[in-house]
Amino acid sequence: MRIAIVNDMVITIAALRRVLLQAPHQIVWIAKTGSEAVAQCAKDRPDLILMDLIMPEMDGVETTRQIMQRSPCAILIVTANVQQSSAKVFEAMGHGALDAVNTPILGSQETPEAAQTLLHKIATIEKLIDKSDFAPILSTQMRSTVSLVAIGASTGGPKALATILSRLPVGFAAAIVIVQHVDAQFAVGMIDWLSHQTPLPVKKAVVGDRPQKGTILVACTNDHLCLQANGTLTYTQYPIEYPYRPSIDVFFNSVAQSWTIRGTAILLTGMGRDGAIGLSALRQRGWHTIAQNKESCVVYGMPKAAIELNAAVEVLTPEAIAITLSRSYSRQRFYE
To answer: Which end of the chain is more exposed for a tag (fewer CB within 10 A), N or C?
Structure first.
């Protein structure tokens, strides 16, 4: 991949260079300030930017926002301590960063484990950009008793999710299950962050959970969340080679197979095509399907793919999606 580095620390730049030499990647440019990165990206757009989060003058959040507005490309946040900077990490992801990883140095000592984690993240992003494989799964049906809202999101998803969830009323009369492309180690932080954006309870989706009215469950592992024939949630590693983990398509297709009450499925901003096939399957089964509109997307890939498949009944902004959900589920509605 053609990779750019945005970092103001000489020691970190040197460490990142050494890590990237372990794989067949090309460093196309290095920027030491956010404004320099924005200008460089406009001249020579790389496949991936390794973006520092904490920088003087313009931090990684604002730099990410400007790059995604002017010269959008894949961005991986690389910062000293992701957990301590989780608020800024999710803010950057809201503007379009794909993921975050700790800087592969500890003081002056490089750690092989951190280096391998970074290389693995880069390899995953490379697959995510280039591949759109899908292998559907699941099974027989059992009668559902609750209306369901199924939501899939990727690049820019946290911001869109916060916009939607913040506008839902107390007493919302449907279950909500969310699959957001995010590494398991950041899922708990994202769930906590989302819980402060909405009056509804937001919880990890764990094996054996049943979607419950008025509760938001969020996929929280690097395996794929899916709905079983008995109406409970579980995780599966299959398809193993699928680059999106957790996969929206895997979840949507399992819902199409196993949830008998027709509900609402929403595909938000994101890179690639994950979720488009699953949204189409749900529309074919009579679900009300919604894709986020182009103008409000950080990356229009996933909604665009769904629209091209004629998978979306409506194309809406996050604000309009929230209004639609509130009107549909202000009281319990069953779709027979």
So the answer is: C
